[in-house]
Sequence to fold (198 residues):
Amino acid sequence: MSNDGGVDTNRRRFLTVATAAVGGVGAVFGAYPFLAAMQPSARAEAAGAPVEVDISKLEPGARLTVEWRGKPVWVVRRTPEMLSRLDGLGGELRDPNSDQDQQPTYAKNTYRSIKPEFLVLVGICTHLGCSPTYRPEPGASDLGSNWPGGFFCPCHGSRFDMAGRVFAGVPAPLNMAVPPYRFVGETRVVIGDDKGAA
Fold:
């Protein structure tokens, strides 16, 4: 109060501003742990980060498995024989021309890859998420004499060719997914990043 019995408005204004400032600072410090907890952890960020794979020792016909975003990703080095068997399968496949968006545009071809020799696929069946087995041998006795080689899902019997295209008449509705990827030189592949891939 002032000497004349009135209210000191300057002091009241100062106390209001000071209280608001202290409250604002307190709110920021109180909200920081909450907001920080909403940020992805370093482990989660690393799980989504691109993965670089050395394919220099991958033999023809062999498959290499790496993890990207918590999923198995396969890199298969296909032989000329494997590639030649892809052409005549169109009538047996559900989506032979890869019309569904299961791959980047640069992999929308018969081989579903940038370089025909190397196939890069997410190793998960498009039916219920099982991981198919790699069955490259044609005419396998348990898969039938007309089996051209590819991937077989033991959970419910879905079949995929050596480009990850699904056969008609099986539970899986879509071709296996091709992740974004690019080549870094002749012997390295970056999975999860396709800048400059095509």
About this structure: The domain at 46-191 is CATH 2.102.10.10 (Rieske Iron-sulfur Protein). The mean pLDDT is 87. The chain has two domains: 1-39, 46-191.
